[in-house]
Each structure stands twice: as structure tokens, then as C-alpha cells.
Amino acid sequence: MVLFGQTRRAVLGLLLGHPDESYYLRQVARLTGAAPAAVQRELVQLVAAGIVERTDQGRQAYFRANARCPVFPELRGLVTKTAGAAGVIAGALTPLAERVRVAFIYGSVAGGDEKRDSDVDVMVVGDVSFAEVARALRPAQDRLHREVNPSVYPPSEFAEKVRGGHHFLSSVLKGDMIFVVGGTNELERLAEERVAEGTRDEPARDRGPARGGRPRPRRLRGPRAQ
Fold this sequence. Notes:
The protein is of the alpha+beta class and 226 residues long. The chain has helices at 6-17, 25-32, 36-48, 72-81, 84-93, 108-111, 130-144, 155-163, 167-174, 184-192; strands at 23-24, 52-57, 60-65, 100-106, 120-126, 148-153, 177-181.
């Protein structure tokens, strides 16, 4: 996907990852973490190229992948192997999106150097529990043909650990990231927020920190697609 810029990768990942669904502009912007103006420019160009189709319903315009496009199968296959992971994960997290501040893919998949058996590492920061995120992501695991390894933090704990130089989070934030909810600005705001007094109902129990400060991988169980 080096042929495409970051915003186009994100838009194609979402639309080609969900070819049966239609999205309006601000949905695409939120789920990709890109600026609405940049998303609008990409959608106009993709519609002109015949890769995306537009449908107007009243005053709202909806966009979806054009399955009749001659290069649809090849393009979808390419996107699914790279930026498509972002589209699948974003779609899976949609039911929780109102309570998720930031969610992004990190690790080998985000860096584009994943292997056939690489996990999809997902960081979620918000007022959600590990169990909720695991349930939401289980279908994405089957669709991506990869293990999905989520790490879930309440906003206050995330901010506290970032400011404290937590080894695992520091390493993650220095690496490549593909945002699926929110974006860089929201991530920076989270890191700068003051830690709320008291504790949350969802402590780090769900993650079970391993030696060295990195949460133990919590892989989602279930049959893998063949």
C-alpha cells in the first residue's frame, strides 16, 4: 500500500473491508481518524475513478465500495492484507465507539512487516472493559484470519502510565500506528489529561501485567478461518 497516502489507505481499508455497508462522510472520518476535509477529497477522487460509488438520500451522501469496478477483487485483496485490517477492526468497534476515546493497531501489522502468523495488536483507550472489547473483536479475528491481541486501558490509567514512562506504552507510542477510532490529536490530549482521583471499576486485572511491564497477550478464542 505504499502506492497510496495515509488517508487513502484508511478510507480504502474501511470501505473495501466492508463492501456491503454504506457510510456518510463524518462516519468515514471518525472511523479512520482522518480529517473530514481530507476524507472528502479522497472520496471525490475514488468516486471519479469508479472504485467507490455515491448514493444520495435526502441531504445525506453515502459512500460504499463499488463491487462492479473491474479491479475490485484485486484491490480488495491488496487492501485486506494491509490497510484492510484497520477497516475490519474499526467496524468491529463501532458498537463501542461512543465510549472509546482512541483505538489503534500497532506492532508488525501497523508497520507493514507482519508475517503470515502475526497477531493484530490493538490498543483501546476508553470507558470499556476488556471483556466488551474482546467480544466486539472476535468476529474481526475470523475475518482477518489472524489472532487479535487487544490491550485495554481506562483513560486515567493510560495518561498516568504514559506520563510515568511506562515501558510497554512508551514502546508502542514510538512505533507505527494505524488509528481506527480517534487520531493523533486525541491521543495527545489523552496523554496530557490529569489523572482522575480514585480508581476505576475496570482495573488492570483484565490485562494481567507480565514481567517487564508489558500486558500479557489476551488472545481471543474461537475458530480460525481456513
